[in-house]
Amino acid sequence: DIQMTQSPSSLSASVGDRVTITCRASHNINTYLNWYQQKPGKAPNLLIYAASSLQGGVPSRFIGSGSGTDFTLSISGLHPEDFATYFCQQSYSPPRTFGQGTKLEIK
Amino acid sequence: QVQLQESGPGLVKPSETLSLTCTVSGGSVSSGNYYWSWIRQPPGKGLEWIGYIYYSGTTDYNPSLKSRVTMSVDTSKNHFSLKLRSVTAADTAFYHCARYGGHENYAFDIWGQGTMVTVSS
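The joint structure predicted for all components is written out below.
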């Protein structure tokens, strides 16, 4: 199985800040990397697919980059609604695997 | 727009079979562009892909659960289902159904709200 490791596990920031979350794959996954946002009591919501493509309806302040084994999700100009947990997920090979999550909290 | 809704018992006894159904509305489970998936999440923990099924009945399961999982699809009812046998407390989780764009975005782009299943006697 391809292991996905996110860092940090948690992050404190203020409204208006820029933050970056990192996801590392245990094997080369090309750009088969997706990012999701999850709020308490809700299902995950797709933000970014194929490492850098913005899902429809997602604000442009969410930016994904990377290829191979190292990926980042950046959020520029945090809005109050962005405080949530973020997961990366690889679609290079089954079983589809997720990172452990990064909880973004208000400072 | 396409919506998914899980249904099934919220409480299952140890050693019994967990059975859930996901009903698709606003779209067709027979669409050749998508795989219909189950993903679970123990409370406060991460996400685990259980597997998915294509409208033709072709399946792909997580090896860690493969011996206990069966998925099926009913195109006439526009829904798909999950059965997980011989459950233990470790199977207690939120169970989500999701659409996987296998020929498009290779991502889980639409999710059901999830249903909590507790394994307890």
